[in-house]
Amino acid sequence: MPTLILVRHGRSTANTAGVLAGRTPGVALDERGAAQAAALPGRLAALPLAAAVSSPLQRCRETLEPLLTARPDLPLHIEDRISECDYGDWSGRKLAELTDEPLMTVVQRHPSAAAFPGGESMRAMQARAVDAVREWNARIEAEHGENAAYVMCSHGDIIKSLVADALGMHLDLFQRVHADPCSVTAIRYTRLRPYLLRLGDTGDLAGLAPREPSPDAGAAGDAAVGGGAGAP
Questions:
Q1: CA torsion angle for 202, 164, 55, 38 (degrees, to 10)?
Q2: Is it the case that residue 224 has pLDDT exceeding 60?
Q3: Could you read off the pLDDT of 123-146 as tens digits, one per residue?
Q4: Tens digits of per-residue pLDDT, 52-90?
Q5: Rounded to the nearest 5 degrees, what angle is found at the Cα of 143, between the Cα atoms of 138 and 144?
Q6: Hey, which residues does 185 pair with through a beta bridge?
Q7: CB 108 within 8 A of CB 61
Q8: Sheet holding 52-54: strands in order across?
């Protein structure tokens, strides 16, 4: 199955202002975020990409713009199910104000029980994102083969929840995962299990380029994804 290259959007004006942006319209990349996005094509240069999939929100689309300019043949698809969590009444509020909300403790310590007032639950957020990735995996494999890779630009909580799913972690542990703005998280999906290849990587990504299988790989199956028994 394909390799998913997850990119968190570059640093946004909401990040620097300490605001929980959610789905608030008009949240753009700041100067640092634009520079991060400009560097993304170079970081991904060694990777043949079959498609680009983006959250509909402005900051994600802006993050992918330099990559799409550098690769004019790379098709872009907008996927609503990887949009930011719907924080409801919390959207647009300062994070400093939210720390005293009783719900914030639940969000941090028991996120599977958290539902935002006027918004969605964190369980629903993870479920829709996982469903989207599984469907995109099947589509990319059908159209481009099992060794294809594709890039998906989304948001911090979405990426953390996808990592938790890939690692077989309960959602209540997903706050232990961290992904910086414009970092890359790579997950290789196989028939039996996913493998987390990169987490929050902000450096060189050439090592993710597909390699020819070794002659002795044979029917080793999932073991060929990484070296050794049980460790990618």
A1: 0
A2: no
A3: 999 999 999 999 999 999 999 999
A4: 999 999 999 999 999 999 999 999 999 999 999 999 999
A5: 100
A6: 6
A7: no
A8: 76-78, 52-54, 149-154, 3-8, 184-189, 194-201
